[in-house]
Amino acid sequence: MTQKKRIRIIYTGGTIGMVPGENGFAPDSGSFLRTLQSIPELSHPDMPDWDLVEFDPLLDSSDITVREWNMIGRAIAERYDDYDGFVVLHGTDTMAYSASALSFMLEGLNKPVVYTGAQIPLCQLRSDGRDNLITAMAIAASGRVHEVCLYFHGALLRGNRSTKLSSDRFTAFESPNAPHLADVGIVIQYNDAAILPPCEGPLHLQEFREIPIGVLKIFPGIQFDLFASIMTERLRGVVLETFGAGNIPSYGQALLPIIDKAYHSGTIITVCSQCLQGTVSLGAYAVSQPLQEVGAVSGRDMTTEAAVTKLYYLFSRDLTTGEIKAEMSRCLRGEMTL
Ligand code: ASP
User: Fold this and answer.
1) Which of 93, 119, 170 to mutate to test the pocket of ligand 1 (most atoms within 8 A of CB)?
2) pLDDT digit string (tens) for 146-189?
3) Of 180, 205, 230, which residue is a domain's last?
4) HSE toward the beta carbon, residue 72, CA cutoff 13 A
5) Which of 157, 160, 211, 316 supports an S-S bond with 306, CB 3.0-4.6 Å?
6) pTM assigned to the model
């Protein structure tokens, strides 16, 4: 008889376990294990063995910070050898950030770490949480993926390629620049060509430090001088969310002196696109040329979530500015297309 797989469920909070209260939906400490035990499928003979660790306090994912990413990382790394895979239950609002963060943090990962959650709590009729959880468990036990991924409503996505698309549809996530790792219907159809090969290991947890990082979204008519005060040497990294293929307004030459100053004080400037699909191509248009000239790094087709968490990761490793710039341009965990 083959040995049953063992899965650890890490419950951080989020809608999946929330209950209605006076001020809207909020997490409820201590009741989630009972909720899971009342789901018959979770004790089905085909289910892997599982146990649960619950964060204290449970959080709406809007409140998740670097500290909780480190806690999730530790919950995995400290018991890595005891389980075949891990399911992280997390609020959907910042799930793509968290999955991206863990993909960088867990160096040498060769087991599945599957993020999931729900749009409707498990305690409510028509919850999507039950299905998301059961399938995430099956994926975590399958041994078919060896990376941090995100499962939601029929699609298994690479964690650091995913982004939240909808606040009210069951299909809440997509990975617009990367193929699905699996599509789930009657069978779980894995896309082996898209799945990262297993790492050699051993697992090493690179915890993140709280680094001052910013995201600046460009919009028509933006008054750049308003942002001069934040672009100081205190800001270690900034992700510019530009138009299209990496374009910024050129009126008044107002942005460049600010970026140039930030660059010379060691701030790493990474250029991402506001478009969900496609890539940054600095220099393709005249209006993006100056970004290249001031040494900005092209984030290519990385999501903002991946770019932000990659900056956290690289700054946490005490690399030089030159090394961080070089690593930002490399694909480390399948987060960008080269
Ligand atoms: N506000 C919730 C959260 O991110 C939304 C969700 O889980 O779907 O925690």
Assistant:
1) 93
2) 999 999 999 999 999 999 999 999 999 999 999 999 999 999 99
3) 205
4) 34
5) 160
6) 0.96
